[in-house]
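Predict the 3D structure for this chain.
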Amino acid sequence: MKNKTLVVLKHEFNKIVKTKTFVIMTILGPFLLAAIMIVPTYFSMKSVEGKAESLKIGIYLADSSQEVLAEVLVEESTALGWELFISKDRESLYTQAIKKEIAGYLTIEEDAIKYFTLKPGDFTVNASLQSIISDHLINERLSARGLSYEEVKALTQAYSLPVFKISEDNETGVESDEGMEFALAIIIPMIFSLMIYMSILLYGQMIGRSVVTEKSSKVVDVLLSSVKPNQLMMGKIFGVGLAGMLQYSIWIFMALLALFVTKLVFGFAIPAQIAMSNFVYLGIYFVLGYLLYGSLFAAVGSASEDEQHLGQLSLPLILFLVVPITLISAVIENPNSTLSLVFGFFPLTAPLVMLSRITTGEIPLWQIPVSIGSLALCIWFFIRLSAKIFKTGILMSGKNFKLREIVKWL
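Done. Predicted structure below.
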């Protein structure tokens, strides 16, 4: 890079890192991202716990023939921490439900059992009541045929299959916590992918808006009297990119420090999904993804007349970033499927998909350098194309260019 490119690079870098927003997001970014994943789960669990402490449901008996079922419901619900009570006054139960004094009420009639509530979508309550009622009815049917419900339940009890994780060093393996393994397999790749998605989108659009602002204010005319279009574009891409790399370096350092402290204090065994090598790949694919999209956003910005037009032209780029997010579950479940391979090597989706595949630890190692090399080659190709668009578009104004017109500039 020439000196003039370095001047632009330094200007763009300082313009970002010296802002309060950059400092605040650098410090709080990891915590905000963790909160997006953890807080909803926490409040969901607290919500279920709260139901166990305060749930109150009425039971209306049309006649005494179903009194046994009502008593079973009262007894079984006590184990859940719920309060169920029997009433002969259906109108009173309805009034209490409307006033939210009770969660709802069951009606037990000779031909049907129904549940009335203001919240019919409460799956936890519905499933628990259904389970108690079903067990009782099944017990009655078996008893009518001279069979014991407990004996039948014991004979039909499903087998719980223990799962052991083996490795090259351990043939016998270590028993795995299936729930924890599944959570880590989903959450870690999701966090990594969201970090890359948000960073690429943030810094990419930052470049596009910067170009549009300078173009619409005619500042670019002054700049181009001193620097060439290519120097201006490369300075912006690498200047903003260095700010992003600085932020990522701090985030990765904070994450590794937190893992080290957790391991040291609590003896926490670091899962394979958050091994240090995966943080290295996180940094690599951020840089590659940013350079790819940064060059494209610079080109789109140079062809845009204002920020509204920038939003329209950059929509296809944003879609290519969104698609991998929607495919993360499928990629994690089968990282070597045709779908995973196609999107893993397609340049515009490779940074997010390949990182998700790598965190599973189930892809052939040769695919990683091939992916990085092919992505670097595509970046070189896209930067050359973007430079042509930038060189033409940065000097043209007064018209909202369409994609087919921009393609002609190539």
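The chain has a mean pLDDT of 78.
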